[in-house]
Amino acid sequence: MDFTSNKRPDNMVRITTPELAHAFIDEAVEAVRAQVGDGKVLLALSGGVDSSVCAALLIRAIGKQLICVHVNHGLMRKGESEQVIEVFQNQLDANLMYVDATDRFLDLLVDVDDPETKRKIIGGEFVKVFAEEAARLDGIEFLGQGTIYPDIIESEKGVKAHHNVGGLPEDLQFELVEPVKLLFKDEVRVVGRELGLPDSMVDRQPFPGPGLGVRCLGAITRDRLEALREADAIVREEIDAAGLPIWQYFCIVPDMRATGVRDGLRAFEWPVIIRCVNTTDAMTATVEELEWPLMKKITNRILAEVPGVCRVCYDLTPKPIGTIEWE
Questions:
Q1: Is residue 9 part of a domain?
Q2: Which of 41, 118, 151, 262 could form a disulfide with 267 if both were Cys (CB 3.0 to 4.6 A apart)?
Q3: 194-204 pLDDT, tens per residue?
């Protein structure tokens, strides 16, 4: 298999079994070793499925030549950075560096309402952060990324610029190492299990590189971002507790307000939109039908616990025509 190509071979067998995953891993490890040699790789480790499987593959191939960097850009889900540090330092013994760049990212995003501009700012700033980290280290020549095939397809078709495809600047100073870029999401999970990653990580729902930045619609404000983070935590907590096998579930908070009534007075606050979808390859998706009691419980909790929110809505749009993310 040509791991340097952005085109998935027409005769490539879908990776659905441990045996096929094992064969892919062996081939990918050889390709990485041939590309990297004795060099060092700097990897953006969000803790999501794609970057985690990418990290595990690179660790299998080059061990301590891999340096993982977790950047908290202030757009993470509630408690996510803490969870990433716990899993990778204590369970996987990864060579992990933590960078808190919250103010740096949010300051750059003030008054930026165009979604593609937001993605490019976030992606570009990620590269700058890594360049700064690389400057503090010796021998960094490569940038590892968890790009997967749907990222490439959607970017090439102009659907949206992914942070790890269209969001990178042309003067990138690192050579890219992308060992899972020819895989669909379901195949990435099979490979992750064969690499020995815990189920909690392999089955973790996808989270975009720009994070909550593409779920806090329009120009991001810190108060609306915090409302989104809290509402999203409630949705994930309740659906997890219900044990529902949903592929991805999250919230969106648009840059608009709705009229409501709170404590007998007029309230002019934000709506929260809930999205729950199922898919296998991220190219198409269907909407999950939540039971009414669960929907009411989630709604009541959000309205009672999240300041600044007066309405809760449910997105019934499949993919296509709607993409999974709103921006």
A1: no
A2: 262
A3: 998 888 788 88
